[in-house]
Design a protein that fits this description.
With 241 residues, the protein is of the alpha/beta class. It contains 9 helices and 12 strands. The chain has a single domain, classed as NagB/RpiA/CoA transferase-like (Rossmann fold).
């Protein structure tokens, strides 16, 4: 047996010890992505309570922390509680336009040093300052563009007012979303991605899509698991009813 065959064989043996949540299948690309998304939305209009319960189960299975609030204006109180329990206070957040609400003042009323990201293009000195603030922040507050119930995954599009650094650099990531971004399956998420790509000027102006499935996990060669090495060590999701 060659070294390559032996190596691949070991990978197959190890991966077979932990079967996935569902079998992998190939789905057809929708001929009309926008119409396919509308069908998904109609289905979820009745099934969203079951979908959000499934999202919570899978998200918490991955060590995520799930919160529910009735309204957006109650989000700062949840972030404030998270900050106080961890003795931190430096927060960066997506812009008001990206979040759909201005959380800056509410976060400051919670005693936090909150810095919202700007919506427009900034010069290099300001961009450098914002990068430094992002690197020093302890909590990053973002929205979410997709929440996949089947896997407890959050998907975020980067762009103006919504940099990737907000979710990747702080030790604690807090994502805020409502049922409009909820999908049940990875296949449905793929349909939404097709629709985004079909209208790049409207929906895909960001530089990247980040899929977040639980806190950052890293294992060394001895399989010693460590959280927070290559990203947040805690991920919180706040669902707005």
């Amino acid at each position: 047996m060659t070294a390559r065959a032996e190596f691949i064989g070991r990978i197959r043996r190890e991966t077979s010890k932990t079967p996935g949540l569902f079998p992998a299948t190939v789905a057809e690309r929708p001929a009309d992505p926008a119409a396919a998304v509308e069908r998904v939305r109609r289905q979820l209009a009745e099934r969203w309570p079951q979908a959000i319960r499934r999202f919570q189960e899978e998200f918490e299975r991955l060590a995520g922390v799930f919160h529910v609030v009735p309204r957006m204006d109650q989000v700062p109180a949840v972030v404030g509680r998270i900050a106080r329990e961890r003795s931190v206070r430096r927060v960066i957040c997506w812009s008001a336009a990206a979040l759909g609400a201005d959380l800056g003042e509410g976060l400051r009323q919670e005693g936090l040093d909150a810095v919202p990201m700007p919506d427009g293009i900034v010069g290099e000195p300001e961009a450098r300052r914002l990068r430094e603030l992002s690197a020093a922040a302890e909590i990053g507050v973002t929205g979410a563009d997709l929440a996949i119930a089947e896997t407890g995954t959050l998907a975020l599009i980067s762009g103006r007012g919504r940099p990737r650094s907000t979710s990747l650099l702080p030790e604690y990531h807090v994502a805020v979303f409502d049922r409009r971004v909820l999908v049940e399956t990875v296949e449905q998420a793929g349909v939404v991605l097709e629709a985004w790509h079909a209208e790049p000027a409207r929906s895909m102006s960001g530089g990247a899509i980040t899929f977040i499935t639980g806190p950052s996990r890293t294992a060394d060669i001895e399989l010693t698991l460590t959280r927070g090495v290559h990203g947040p060590r805690e991920v919180h999701a706040i669902f707005i009813e």
